[in-house]
Design a protein that fits this description.
Elements lengths: L18 H12 L7 H9 L3 H25 L5 H10 L1 H29 L10 E6 L2 E6 L1 H19 L9 H20 L18 H11 L2 H5 L4 H4 L7 H30 L20 H8 L3 H35 L17 H14 L6 H16 L1 H12 L12 H19 L1 H23 L18 H14 L14 H20 L3 H16 L9
Antiparallel strand pairs: 1-2
Helix pairs in contact: 1-7, 1-11, 2-8, 2-11, 3-8, 3-11, 3-16, 3-17, 4-5, 4-16, 4-21, 5-6, 5-13, 5-14, 5-15, 5-18, 6-13, 6-14, 7-11, 7-13, 8-17, 12-13, 13-14, 15-17, 15-18, 16-17, 16-20, 17-20, 18-19, 19-20
Length: about 550
């Protein structure tokens, strides 16, 4: 029976995590492998105006993060980002956002493997793994056939380590966080004193060669949003916070600010430390775009060999450790989806040591499959960004639904001006999807359809007879129009394939904002009833007690 109390179910968690623990968890997740290539990719897309792109990305992530702060305090559950919509809108929305969560987690390990291979081009024996091509005037480095084979081998290694539960890196999160933050700071300081070239601001076709469209596109496609993801780790620890009302918003806001400052400094140093010859011509195809190890190549050119060595070491440790953790997380997410009845029972098959081996094998297969349609780091970043933001988009909808349906529930942290910030967060999420562009978004659409097929077939053929989730179609009536509508807007926009778009730049932003507001209020007025929300929250708590999802850092 569902509880009808006015407070969320007692999770039994010990509230002993302070502010430092919370902000360090989020900061360690934000400062990840994205720093190795984000500055290069953003400069290639937007020119020196990439600095503006980082600021836009920072504000966008901060708005999204604030909505998570309230939700994390209300329902301190692992993987809350994907599960808040399940509580607010029932099984249809829960299955959909659960799939978005799994898709996001499953595609992170492949991108970390691609990062390792790209930096490995420093060694002659690895130079056949990638080749340089020019697409629409932009230089890209794609995996070759042998590169894909090596990438699959590395994926197999990550899977095998998880399978045998030898997870040294995953158990040294504190040391890994110190390393991941220290190395970028070291690079900033050393390169800043190595000699900077202020003339680079006006080189390569000017400050903003692609105009506003290039600045906005860089937010989604160059690794900016990808790099800033991870703020939600403080939310995941909300149930263990000693003072959630004070510390969670401070940790969320503080970690995003720290991340934006570090990435901005990295972008500035990368731009100014480049030798003038490396930026001659156009930003999209200048010599620096051919760097396989961007910061290491700059350090080598400046004669700072020891720094290049440190960066090459980091290019193995950080992506490898992150890939290891995300392979773990992917199998745990699929395990949880099976426990909720959305995935076949096979995803709950575990080894004697409790490792969900079937989920690991599937994650390995999907990871390897990503290398074919997304053979470059930047192209896979675009997919992950869209999948992540689509997952995050459910949070402001859930917040609005909870404010309407269960206003009296205890909230350790209450978001000020939620009636404005919550729909604004939903608009921001959809703008990021818009800026990602049709080339990536149609592939995301295919991935979503695959998820629908998996969930429907599981339902039709009884792949999980032990659990029968509540399929609340009425509460999720807005979901299909939302997904189709966003696809159409992107297709008809300036970021779509049309030579004469229906919605040129700025108009497409307005259309997206208006559409987002319509979907937002449609969703919160269609949400499950108070009783159903409280019952689902109780069910989630019961699943939580018997299902562990690992914390994740990227």
């Amino acid at each position: 029976m569902a509880t009808t109390t006015s407070t969320p179910p007692d999770t039994g968690l010990k509230r002993n995590v302070g502010f430092i623990g919370l902000i360090w968890a989020s900061t360690g997740s934000i400062i990840g492998s994205g720093w190795l290539f984000g500055s290069q990719a953003a400069l290639q897309t937007a020119g020196p105006a990439a600095i503006i792109s980082w600021l836009i990305g920072g504000v966008a992530i901060l708005v999204l993060a604030l909505t998570h702060a309230e939700l994390g305090g209300m329902f301190p559950i692992a993987g809350g980002t994907a599960r808040f919509p399940h509580i607010a809108f029932g099984g249809v929305a829960g299955a959909s956002f659960g799939w978005f969560s799994w898709l996001q987690a499953a595609t992170v390990a492949p991108i970390e493997v691609e990062a390792m291979l790209k930096y490995a081009q420093h060694w002659k024996w690895a130079q056949g793994w990638l080749h340089t091509v020019t697409v629409n005037g932009s230089t890209q480095q794609l995996l070759t056939g042998s590169g894909i084979a090596v990438a699959c081998v590395l994926m197999a290694v990550l899977t095998a380590i998880n399978l045998f539960s030898v997870r040294v890196l995953a158990n040294t999160n504190s040391a890994a966080t110190w390393w991941k933050v220290a190395i970028p700071l070291l690079v900033i300081i050393v390169l800043a004193f190595s000699g900077l070239h202020g003339s680079n601001f006006g080189a390569g076709g000017g400050f903003a060669p692609a105009g506003a469209q290039g600045v906005l596109a860089a937010v989604s496609t160059s690794g900016i949003i990808f790099s800033l993801l991870g703020f939600e780790q403080a939310d995941q620890l909300a149930g263990e916070s000693s003072n959630p009302k004070r510390d969670i918003p401070r940790a969320v806001i503080g970690s995003v600010i720290i991340g934006v400052v570090i990435y901005l400094l990295l972008q500035l140093v990368f731009l100014l430390a480049l030798r003038p010859a490396a930026v001659a011509g156009h930003w999209a195809s200048a010599d620096f775009t051919k760097f396989t190890g961007p910061f290491a190549d700059i350090a080598m050119a400046a004669g700072i060999t020891w720094l290049a060595v440190v960066i090459y070491i980091d290019a193995v440790i950080s992506p490898g450790g992150t890939g290891l953790i995300y392979v773990t997380a992917t199998s745990r997410v699929s395990y949880g989806l099976s426990r909720n009845g959305y995935f076949p029972k096979a995803f709950e098959w575990t080894t004697k040591s409790g490792v969900p081996w079937f989920g690991l094998i599937v994650a390995f297969v999907i990871g390897c499959a990503c290398f074919a349609p997304f053979p470059s780091w930047q192209s896979l970043v675009s997919l992950i960004t869209s999948a992540s933001v689509l997952m995050y988009a459910g949070a402001p909808l859930a917040l609005g639904a909870f404010r309407k349906r269960i206003p009296d529930i205890e909230r350790p942290y209450t978001l000020p001006a939620a009636s404005v910030l919550s729909p604004l967060a939903f608009i921001v999420a959809n703008l990021i999807i818009l800026w990602t562009g049709w080339t990536t978004d149609w592939k995301l659409g295919v991935a979503i359809l695959i998820g629908v097929v998996v969930i429907v077939l599981n339902r039709v053929f009884g792949g999980n007879k032990a659990v029968q989730p509540r399929w609340d179609w009425k509460a999720a009536q807005w979901l299909l129009p939302y997904l189709i509508g966003m696809g159409l807007i992107v297709f008809l926009s300036d970021f779509g394939p049309l030579k004469h778009p229906w919605f040129p730049l700025w108009w497409d932003i307005l259309v997206t904002a208006v559409f987002s507001v319509i979907i937002y209020y449609w969703a919160i007025n269609s949400a499950s009833s108070r009783e159903e929300i409280l019952r689902t929250a109780e069910d989630v708590r019961e699943v939580e007690e018997s299902n562990v999802v690992e914390p994740v850092m990227h």
